[in-house]
Design a protein that fits this description.
This protein has about 130 residues and is α+β, with helices and mostly antiparallel strands. The protein contains 4 helices and 7 strands; from the N terminus they run H-H-E-E-E-E-E-E-H-H-E. It has a 7-stranded mixed sheet. The protein starts with a helix and ends with a strand.
């Protein structure tokens, strides 16, 4: 699982809402995401940590912050995965939307994360079992 999550360049292969990835260098990539709502979110991701149990990227663009995957091996072929993210709106349009349409944006993000979980499960099966929490 670690190898799949660390390789940003191939996220679009398994995460349907990741529309495109352009590798800048080993630590940076441009990513275009689109969940259910009809807008593309263009982000620059920067590697912060690549430990066996923690992967972290910095996020820059119309939203800014970080995202982390915590991996905890449960036993042979079984890994628990926990995702955390903290971002704030930076672009004026996103600042306004974060107040006006917050429930809709939360729902849209949830749909994106469901796509991530489903895509990751499909990518890892049958080689590993994923327990998302």
């Amino acid at each position: 699982m670690h190898d799949v999550l660390i390789d940003l360049e191939f996220y679009a292969d398994w995460w349907p809402q990741v529309r495109a990835v352009a590798k800048i260098d080993d630590d940076h990539a441009l990513v275009v995401c689109r969940s259910t709502l009809p807008y593309d979110l263009e982000l620059e991701l920067s590697a912060v940590r690549r430990d066996a149990d923690l992967l972290e990227v910095g996020i820059d663009g119309p939203i800014r912050g970080w995202a982390r995957y915590h991996l905890d091996e449960q036993g042979p072929g079984s890994t628990s995965l926990r995702f955390e993210q903290e971002v704030r709106a930076e672009a004026p349009m996103f600042v306004v939307a974060s107040y006006v349409a917050r429930p809709l944006l939360v729902w849209n993000h949830h749909r994106m994360m469901v796509g991530s979980e489903q895509g990751l499960r499909a990518r890892l099966q049958p080689s590993a079992e994923v327990s998302a929490s």
